[in-house]
């Protein structure tokens, strides 16, 4: 049957919202269906399931989860849920052979790298990512949690599934319709450190190398990134993954200072006289954007802009330690004050369309 254009768009949008589940798995594959059942009750649809497991766990998954008579098919049939596509990702030894179990430090290091790479690859996709740490050895859950800390995006979530002792090591996979639900799906809070990742972190460095690099950047306050996007003449600013809601004129003023920083190319905190300038030295007349009735921008106007930008970052949840580095900062005494963006030029990205954001800001101000 042919779809109308509207149906196609709705189907595409819905598919983009469906989640991918990444789960570490031991010899109790029930945790997968328990997680899927509980996610469905929360309104989370899962389209793809990625099972990271040793060879023993893979046997249990293929025998009890997969296939037409497996628990995944039964769950979909009994509860009228879409049946997700399932993919088994065998964990391998340092020599590349399928692991029966994780028994040594070298095994641990190899497994850690594979789990991190799997999560990094999924985080590059369009689907929201859901993780389950309920299966397998404790180290597998630890590494999956760490991988989420490093690569998860806003909206990606991590869970652990719990059932009463009498349901453990049984053939319970999910409750039948009308039965009491004994499953407790606990969401696991975790910090997101994605902004601190070094270049090419998802291309194969060991977990230890990635963690050491992230820690150095945290210690140096080096994870801040600032990006400006113009669309239809309007400037939108992003600090890390946070989209900021600020006045159009403030965003364009901020962009003007960011342009000077990028053109200068330096990383000096505040001493550079090429990219830290007085209000009169801005290439665009920002005063017309801030107050259309008084085109001459003053230092007082600019201080108000700086304050509103800091407030916008705080409202968005940007870490306090980032606001001074990503916003417009000042240096010098009043009367000789210069302004600029302290963030190094290589941490600022400007995606500009052909339309003129300065003109758009003036139009918005009017």
Give an overview in words.
With 366 residues, the chain is of the alpha/beta class. Helices cover 40% and strands 16% of the residues. The strands form three sheets. It has a six-stranded mixed sheet with strand order 3-2-1-4-5-6, with helices on both faces. Strands 9-8-7-12 form a four-stranded mixed sheet. Helix 5 packs parallel to helix 6 and helix 8 crosses helix 10. The longest helix has 19 residues. It is elongated, with a radius of gyration of 26 Å. The N terminus and C terminus are likely disordered.
Based on the model shown, name its key terms:
disordered C terminus, four-stranded mixed β-sheet, six-stranded mixed β-sheet, 40% helix, 366 residues, alpha/beta
Query: Helical percent range?
Result: 25-40%
Main pleated sheet = 6 strands, mixed
Strand segment count: 12
Q: How big is the Rg? A: 26 Å
Spatially, the strands of the biggest sheet line up as: 3-2-1-4-5-6
> What general form does the structure show?
elongated
**Mean pLDDT level:** 84
